Protein: Major facilitator superfamily (MFS) profile domain-containing protein
Organism: Oryza meridionalis
Amino acid sequence: MNVSIGLGLTFVQTQSFLAMLCRFRYGTFAYYAAWVAVMTAFIAVFLPETKGVPLESMPTVWALHWYWKRFAPQEQLKRSEVRGRNEQEICYRPTEGGGTKS
């Protein structure tokens, strides 16, 4: 099902691209550039940084995020608070050896 939806949307996009190019000329590329800017802003605002965060701590990262905390289960955050860990310990754990592995 997922593949068929992806192929269907790709077909619609490729069929509409030439019609847009003939009518809008350079505006077609401005249209796609605007969508790339919107998607980049969405990623920057709504996705938390996960560099150096262990996989086991990801539910807590979602529970601490300003937007996603309303959808994340709060019991994970309560369990980490009970253990006495703060937000910086949960959200970042540096790797041994200065962050590079040889």
Residues 2-46 form one domain. The chain is about 65% helix and 0% strand. The longest helix spans residues 2-24.
